[in-house]
Automatic annotation (TrEMBL):
It comes from freshwater metagenome. InterPro entries: NADH_UbQ_OxRdtase_chlpt_su5_C (IPR002128), NADHpl_OxRdtase_5_subgr (IPR018393), ND/Mrp_TM (IPR001750), NU5C-like (IPR003945), Proton_antipo_N (IPR001516). Pfam families: Proton_antipo_C, Proton_antipo_M, Proton_antipo_N. GO terms for molecular function: NADH dehydrogenase (ubiquinone) activity; NADH dehydrogenase activity; quinone binding. It is found in: Membrane. Residues 478-563 form the NADH:ubiquinone/plastoquinone oxidoreductase chloroplast chain 5 C-terminal domain. The chain crosses the membrane at residues 6-22, 34-55, 85-105, 117-135, 141-159, 180-201, 207-226, 247-265, 277-299, 306-324, 330-349, 370-390, 410-431, 491-511, 544-563, 636-655. This is Unannotated protein. The keyword Chaperone does not apply. Residues 68-118 form the NADH-Ubiquinone oxidoreductase (complex I) chain 5 N-terminal domain. Belongs to the complex I subunit 5 family.
Length: 660
């Protein structure tokens, strides 16, 4: 069954090709079902391949499809590397993408570009699978650029609004900085090893000169911080929320932004062979990003912006894990984060849909009774990301903190503070959206009575009639908003994701080695370079108790502020945090001021000096050739004279060299 691995990326590609040529004819909703079916079949195939991979030596299988780039000693194949790391990535990418495709059928209902949306989604899934399954760095880079292009298409999908188009361009340009680092790393890898195929150069990494390994690791880290939104290149991710909510869930929470984490874990032998300051730099950048983004999330009013900065913060945790040698912990948190963050984004999309495109939490409240399924599933995601046991986020986050404590108590303390902030700002979101007073109508009681009065009518309405009723309902009563629960294509993915967000922690429980399934599964990829922890029962218990206490303190603090009103929220929601520490504004000011002048000087230098030198050589060649052309006049007598002169000069030269 493992030989079917080529079908996994081929199915989304087939869906993309079918939709790109016939999408308009197929129309809504069939285009959505075709796109969803293609990805769902890829997930089913991935499950079959996973079963077959158990029988392979070290759970590794490599397949070369055909030669792509033959250029002297530089050869690149279209090949697939299936190992524990890529298999884990494929399973959750295809699984979550299937659910998000299904959700999108309901969310994008009525959009004029409905087929195009699913065309882009299928292309994205194909590109992401190429990224994680490629057996060489060039193929990984191809998928890397593919997901970047799809990100641009999907962020600016509603390009009629200027801010959406600007957000797409911002994401595209910011990611180019990271892509430059990845490209340089590919070049240097080929110069150092003579190959860019993972199974060929990674085993040779321990013998690599430390300086070379350090440079390659540094450039790969530059690529990773661009794609995974770390300091200072995190500024694109919050603006990317301009895209449709399923895009936020699929690309900017569950899959694409984890590509940088995947890349660093993949090349862990290079990091191990580099200078000791490289892991420290990765850990410091990660924990700093986690803390900074958590503080910014405290003061955001847009429900999707809170989740966006939360994503940046959780990615920081993953980078912290890589820096402290907890590679399996980074993948563990990547998987659990994919479940609960996709759940939270889709839940937010359900709220926005039910609130008729309202995203400001100040106009929400008391929605748990109006949207019970959305509320219950969202609360499960909240408890998971807040680190409340036994939900999945508790186990994966505590795993990272254990490795951080092993590396440095300072990293551990900052990680704990960030966990406290995470529990606080996520509780703030839940309390303001689902609890407290209703701020979406004239009064909570009036709106609930209005909802009950229409329950019987809604029960007999179907299809377009119900949609028309919802629209009329939204426009009624002095501009009041009348929330409603989402329909089943949006609710089923929420229920499935909520289940996995609750139980995914069983993948890597810390009590015994027999329960650390993910650690054992990833051992062929990261085993030699993974930091080894020896936690006694007392230490493990203390760490788990501390993590639980921190999560509960964060929830209690938000409860006292936002439900009991014991503290003025303005004392916490500082303008400094609301404006993202003014980092984005500072970069914008620099780029539009002194930075722009500097870039203009560089462009002038390029035009005058670099291009001038190249063009000067061309002009000199043309000038010399035009003068030499004068002696090529076509007269035989002139040629004979030149031959004679040449012969005389040769004889004269020879005579001067003869010693008498």
């Amino acid at each position: 069954m493992v030989g079917l691995v080529w079908l996994i990326p081929a199915l989304p590609l087939a869906g993309f090709l079918l939709l790109v040529f016939f999408g308009k004819r197929i129309g809504e909703p069939r285009a959505g079902w075709i796109g969803t079916s293609a990805v769902a079949l890829a997930f089913v195939t991935a499950c079959l391949v996973f079963v077959g991979l158990w029988g392979e030596p070290e759970h590794t299988y490599e397949l070369s499809l055909f030669q792509w780039i033959p250029a002297g000693h530089f050869n690149v194949d279209i090949g697939i590397l299936l190992d524990p790391l890529s298999m884990a990535m494929v399973l959750f990418v295809t699984g979550i993408a299937s659910l998000i495709h299904l959700y999108s059928i309901g969310y994008m209902h009525g959009d004029s570009r409905f087929p195009r949306f699913f065309t882009y989604l299928n292309l994205f899934v194909f590109s992401m699978l190429v990224l994680v399954l490629g057996n060489n760095m060039v193929l990984t880079f191809l998928g890397w650029e593919g997901v970047g292009a799809c990100s641009y298409f999907l962020i600016s999908f509603w390009f009629e609004k200027e801010e959406n188009a600007s957000a797409g361009k911002k994401a595209f340009i910011t990611n180019r900085v990271g892509d430059w680092g990845f490209m340089v790393a590919i070049f240097m890898t080929f110069f150092a090893f003579g190959t860019v195929t993972y199974t060929q150069f990674l085993p040779m990494a321990p013998g690599l000169a430390q300086t070379t390994a350090t440079f390659i690791a540094l450039m790969l880290f530059v690529g990773a911080i661009g794609k995974s939104a770390q300091i200072p290149l995190f500024i694109w991710l919050p603006d990317a929320m301009a895209g449709p909510t399923p895009v936020s869930a699929l690309i900017h929470a569950a899959t694409m932004v984890t590509a940088g984490v995947y890349l660093l874990v993949r090349v862990n032998p290079i990091i191990a062979a580099s200078a000791s300051w490289i892991p420290w730099m990765i850990a410091i950048v990660g924990v700093a990003t986690a803390f900074l983004a958590a503080t910014i999330a405290l003061a955001q009013q847009d429900i999707k912006k809170v989740l966006a900065y939360s994503t940046v913060s959780q990615l920081g945790y993953m980078f912290l894990a890589i820096g402290v040698g907890g590679y399996s912990a980074a993948i563990f948190h990547m998987i659990t984060h994919a479940f609960f963050k996709a759940l939270l984004f889709l839940g937010a999309g359900s709220v926005i849909h039910g609130m008729h495109d309202e995203q400001d939490m100040r106009r929400m409240g008391a929605l748990r009774k109006i949207m019970p399924v959305t509320a219950v599933t969202f609360i499960i995601g909240w408890l998971a990301i807040a680190g409340v046991p036994p939900f999945s986020g508790f186990w994966s986050k505590d795993d990272i903190l254990a490795y951080a404590l092993h590396k440095s108590p300072i990293l551990y303390v900052i990680g704990l503070i960030t966990a406290l902030l995470t529990a606080f700002y996520m509780s703030r979101l839940v309390f303001r959206v689902f609890y407290g007073d209703a701020r979406w109508g004239e009064s909570a009681e009036g709106e609930l009575a209005n909802l009950n009065a229409h329950t019987a009518t809604d029960a007999v309405e179907t299809g377009d009639q119900a949609d028309a009723h919802d629209d009329a309902h939204a426009d009624a009563g002095h501009g009041a908003v009348h929330p409603h629960e989402s329909k089943w294509p949006m609710l089923v993915p929420l229920i499935v994701l909520a289940f996995f967000a609750a139980v995914a922690g069983v993948l890597n429980l810390p009590f015994t080695e027999h329960l650390e399934f993910l650690n054992r599964w990833l051992e062929p990829v990261v085993g030699e370079n993974q930091a080894h922890l020896s936690l006694g029962g007392v230490q493990l218990t203390v760490e788990l108790v501390i993590s639980t206490t921190i999560a509960l303190l964060g929830i209690f603090g938000a409860y006292m502020v936002y439900l009991k009103n014991k503290v003025d929220p303005r004392r916490i929601e500082l303008p400094f945090f609301a404006n993202g520490w003014y980092i984005d504004q500072g970069i914008t000011k620099f780029m539009g001021g002194i930075g722009r002048k500097g870039f203009e000087l560089i462009a002038m230098f390029d035009k005058v000096v670099i291009d001038g030198a190249v063009n000067g050589v061309g002009r000199a060649t043309r000038g010399g050739a035009s003068r030499l052309r004068a002696i090529e006049n076509g007269y035989v007598r002139w040629y004979a004279l030149m031959i004679g002169v040449g012969a005389v000069l040769i004889v004269a030269f020879v005579m001067t060299q003869v010693s008498l």
